[in-house]
Each structure stands twice: as structure tokens, then as C-alpha cells.
Amino acid sequence: MGRAGAGGLTTDYTCGGPGSGARRYLGGVNRLGRESSLYLRQHQDNPVDWYPWGPEAFEKARREDLPVLLSVGYSTCHWCHVMAHESFEDHETAALQNRLFVSIKVDREERPDVDRVYMEALQAMTGSGGWPMTVFLLPDGRPYFAGTYFPPQDRHGLPAFGRVLGAAAAAFREHRAELEATAERLLSAQRARVVPAGPTSLGPEMLAGARDSVLAAWDQRWGGLRGAPKFPQAPLLEYLITRAALVADVEAGTAAGLALSGMAEGGIRDQLGGGFHRYSVDDRWAVPHFEKMLYDQAQLISVYLHYGQLTGSPEAVGVARSTADFTLQQLRLPSGGFAAGLDADVGVHEGSTYLWSKRALDGLGGGQASWRKLFRLDPQARLEGGSVLQAACPWGSDPPDLAIGALRSRLLEERSHRAQPARDEKVVVCWNALLIAALAELGLATGEERYLEAAIGAGQLLRDRARDPGGDLAHLLYGDSARLSANLEDRAAMGLAALWLHEVTGAERWLDWAVEVGETAEARHRGDGGVWFDTPAGADSQLVSRPTTLEEGATRSGVSLMVQLCWRLHLLTGEAAWQDRASVALGHMAGAMLRAPSAFGGLLAEAQVLAVGPVQLALIAPQGSHRGLLGVARSSFRPQLAVACSGGGDGGPQLTRGRVMLEGRPTAYVCRDFSCRLPTTRVEDMEEQLAG
User: Which residue has the higher pLDDT, 365 or 205?
Assistant: First the structure.
């Protein structure tokens, strides 16, 4: 679920309600006004006596022997906003909450480690998860009850939040021993969470069985996994496209295309401004929750590009480009980094920026005959305030009227005068790294220099500024301020982004940084069982367990990204240790992947690449002059391809050492297992060797 507080709640509350004598804090009524997080500051004027995550809150809970209410959400989340307006802004509810609990607010994007620990607890208790996440803790941080959104009154089978508060507090007072035992069992299971080791390798038959399982759960009408709500699940789409490309699996490619066309035509895509909303509430991709997240844009740029390269679909590449353009126009910051996302709500209204009526379209669009060539209004996709635009023409067909460009401009101009969703301007390293990789690949495939320039600029920002006081990679940037230690996703995604920047620029320093980031991840995150932890060792003593994210949903897990990084580094450096690390982790995960393949799209894609066998390309050329050969190599979808660049001679990556230019011209060496075919300066010869 998702609603988050609309930026700037300004009612002059005092903690505990009027007349409570509670003090004001800098920037707001409670402590959250002192925080950098937009989500926390959205709650700074709540009458709830919020604490940020940290020792102060837990010390108070232990000292006064009070349970802790932990509320986790994010700034662009729709249902987080709803719960804020209904309960956290309500004086009576807040007074009850202040009396019975120590209350902690957490931004899940700022603290994914905290979110993961308690999301695992929520899923263990209820079988599902979501945001806002509401977890009740013992004073030492162990969870004893959890849920997501609770309404102000009993409805839709959910108990009223006030009733939940009373019951959770009564259980703490009256059944403490039982809660202690339950909490300890739950936490012990989390701490001991070990993925049963599966086969050491995933052979063709096993991979075919995983593919069959994914397709058995696929919606054969609308695409995506069956049911609602429906998420893009980019890692799973990437797996299907990868399999289609590497083993000519037509059915896998068709399944991916069904979802991609449905999303491109549906309301989940902003048909006017570009970009994708986070998910649809229905199974038809028609009615979205309206937040736009950077990680979705980044991954869907890659997915649509790869599908377009696989099938020759200019429409798919067009969606990739329009999504990239939206990201550059709406999420790019003056620093060169990219904001985390756009809010779902404007004020208290969800999605009002994006909704249209037939009358408004008739007035601006030259009557029905004009706008209906481009858009349709689905009666089943109507919300309070209007309807969500969907594409009128099936994906792959062109609207018949050349005047649609002018119509789109008129509608965008009209929309620009409406209230706009707030932008959360924190720069999350992982999500920016995913976008850097996507923009670099898109720029190479299309020859669009602006995508490459944006990728390089964002990469330089993270390399220079996303550093903690010790010089290590940080998790995020607030303006010029780096905050918190990088998690595994940050490091692995940044390493992969650096490899793309090595390709784009030909500069060895990007490859060196990828190696540095990978080595730090191995040193600080590796667990005894062969799989990496999300957090570096000793990151936060307040955490009751150290999280390990294995499954993949909206994004690839840190483990999946690390497997990919390790294999790529092995192919470029020749160091066997990188290969061993990836093989151990992949083998350790194999059993879980085969039991629930839909939850491991990114890892399945890597396993498919390794089963087919990687291809290496060494480009020897003066820095920058390799782009001609590289652009041709990247004009097709080649998921098994790893590229190293240098000026030749004994320097540069291992893959390029000893290689020279022919006749002083940029030269390509196509290799497998560091054994290269005859070098060539001819594009046609290089393409033939890559295809072979």
C-alpha cells in the first residue's frame, strides 16, 4: 500500500493536543522538524510526540517501561498520507498514542535496513506486507504485533487505529510473558534465517522448469503476475527478455511483451508527461497509485530498451526514451543527481494532477474527434475528480492524425497550471546508480549524447560527494550532505554503474572504482553462509537483527546485484576470486530460486547468462575514440557481453593487456574465457564474431 504525508503540514499543534504544555522543536512541534528526511518533516507538526529512529527513543521506552510504536513509510506514499491525515493529525488519537507508547517515525528510503527487519516480522505475522507499516515493539526493539494501514473507524474488515492502540498496550501490560516469548521466537527465526543450499549449478533443465513456473503464474490476458494490485516487477521482466534473447524462448518473450504493451497503453503510464506510476490497483494496468519512483523509471528504461532491441520494436525503444526524458526533465536536480520520486497526492487528493474529464478534453482537444485519436477514458478507471488517461491506439500502431503533437502540448500546458505533486529530493545512491546504468546503455544504443552526459554527471556526483567521513560510499545525499553507510544494494548497483561509465568514457578509473566498491562490499557485507548481508558489520546497534534481502520484487536485491557485479569483474579483471564469490552465492540461492522463481527474476537472469556463457569484448583505442565500435556492439541486446576499454599495451584491464590497435585504428577483440579471436577494425567482422 502507500500514502505518505503531503509536504508541509502546517497546523500549529502541540504534542499531546491543545493545552498539553508540550514544547515546540526546531522546525516543528515534535523532533522531526530537525530531520533531513522529507517524509519525517512531513510529520513535524503532528500532535504525535514522534522520535526519529535512534537510541533516545529506546532509552525512554526502557526507562519508562513503555512499548514502542514504529511507523514506517515514505514521502510519496499515498496510504501513508491517508493514515497521517486520519490518525496522526487527530488530537484525540495522538493523545492516546502519546500516553501509551513511545512513537518512532522511519523513512524506509532513508533506513531500508530498519524497514527490512520489521517488514520480515510483519510478513511472518500476517503473510503480507506494505506501507504504511505499523509495528508494536517491546522496549528493546523486538516486535510483538504488526500491521499496515489502520482506519480511524472499523471498516473493510480492519479494526480502528484507536482500538488497535488500546489492545496493543493492554497486551503489553497484561500478557508480557507471552509477548516476550513470541517476540523471541520470531526474532530467533529471523536471526537464523538461512537459505537451504540447493544444487551448486542451475542447468538447462532446472532453468526451463523455473521458466515454466513463472509462466504458469502469468496473466495471459493483461501480462504480469496474475491478480491485483499489479506491479511492473522489472527484474522478472528482465529475466523473461534475457531468456528470450539467449535461448530463443519465444513464449518468454511474448509474455514479457504482453506486460510491456499493457503498461505502455494503460493508466500506470503517464500518457502525457511520460514515466510510470508505481503500481496499478487493478489487474489491467488501468488505475494507478500515482507516486512515481526513480527506481521504476530506471529499470523500465532498461527493460523497454532491451525488448525493443530483441524484437526490433521502435515503439518499445520510444517508451524507453520517453521515460528517460521524463526522468531528466522532472527528477534531475541541479547537482546532477536524481530525486527519489514524485508524490502520489497533491494536498489531500490522490493523483489530481493527472485526472481528466470528457468536458475538459473536449474544450482543449478540439472535440471528441481529435483527442479520442490519442486517448481514451475508461469508465472503470474513473476516480473522484476525473479519469485516468489511457492510450487509444494499440501498442505498435501510430495515431492517424499528425496534429496529435500539438494536442499533447496543449494538454500538458493545461496540466502545468494545476497543483503539482511534491518531489522528494534526496539522492539515493542505489536508485541513482540504476539510472546511470540505464542512461548509459540507452545513450550507447541510440547515439543520444544527452543521456550519456547525464549518466556521467550523476556518476561523478556520487563518486565525489556520496562519501562518509571515512571516505566510504554513503547511502544517500541531502544536498551536499552525505548520510548513512551504504547498504549492499548501493555498493553493488554503484559498482555496476561504474562499469557502464568505464564503457562510455573508456577511462580506467571507473573500472578501478568498481573494483574498490566490490571489494568493500565483500569485506563489510559477506556472511558466513556465503550470501551477503544488507548492512555492513556493526552498522546500527539498535537493530535487533542484521537483515539479508534475498527475494526481488520492485527492484533487484543486493545479493542479485552483487552476483552480477562479481561475474562482470571476473570477466574484466581475470581474477578467479570474483567468479568464486558469485558461484558460491548463486549456488547457495539455487534451491530458493527453484521453489519460488517469480521472486528471483534478477538472479534467474544471471543464471541464464552463465548457463549460455559470457562473451568479452576488448576495445583498444585512444580514450573516447572507441565509441563507434562500442555503439554497434550495444545496439543489440547482449546480456552476456562484458566490455573493457584501454589504449592498449600493458596497462588497463586484464582483458585488454597485450592487445594493440591495428593500423592505428580502434580495434575490437571478441573473447571467451580470455581467449580472443583475431582482432578487427571492421564493424561487420566484430558483429559476426559477437553473434558467433
Answer: 205
Amino acid making up residue 212: D
Same domain, 228 and 272: yes
Residue 255, SS3?
helix
Give the bridge partners for 135, in sequence order.
Answer: 70, 146
**Whether residues 379 and 506 fall in one domain:** no
Tell me the per-residue pLDDT of 464-493, one tens digit each, with 9 for 90 and over: 999 988 899 999 999 989 999 999 999 999
Rounded average pLDDT over 100-124: 93
- 206 CB contacts (<8 Å, ≥6 apart)? 199, 590, 594
Question: For residue 517, is pLDDT > 70?
Answer: yes
Q: Which of 162, 191, 220 is the last residue of a domain?
A: 191
Q: How many CB atoms lie within 10 A of CB 334?
A: 7
Domain membership of residue 9 (yes or no) is no
3-state secondary structure (DSSP) of residue 406: helix
Residue 640 pLDDT grade (very low, low, confident, very high; cuts 50, 70, 90):
very high
Q: How many residues does the chain have?
A: 692
What residues make up the domain containing 82?
31-191
Three cell numbers, residue 8: 508541509
Q: Residue 404 — pLDDT band, cuts 50, 70, 90?
A: low
Specify which of 53-57, 128-132, 201-205 reaches the highest per-range mean pLDDT: 53-57
> 646: which residues sit within 8 A by CB, 6+ positions away?
506, 508, 618, 619, 620, 652, 653, 656, 657, 659
The whole-chain average pLDDT of the chain stands at 89
d(CA 30, CA 18): 14
**φ/ψ (deg, to 5) at 526:** -65, 130
586, 620: one domain: no
In a domain, 199, yes or no: no
- 3-state SS of 102-132 is EEEEEECCCCHHHHHHHHHHHHHHHCCCCCC
User: Is the same domain home to 518 and 591?
Assistant: yes
Q: Look at residues 368, 389, 420 and tell me which one is the last residue of a structural domain.
A: 420
Same domain? 60 vs 172 = yes
Sign of CA dihedral 460, 465, 467, 473: negative
Does one domain contain both 602 and 478? yes
User: Which residue has 526490433 as its cell numbers?
Assistant: 312
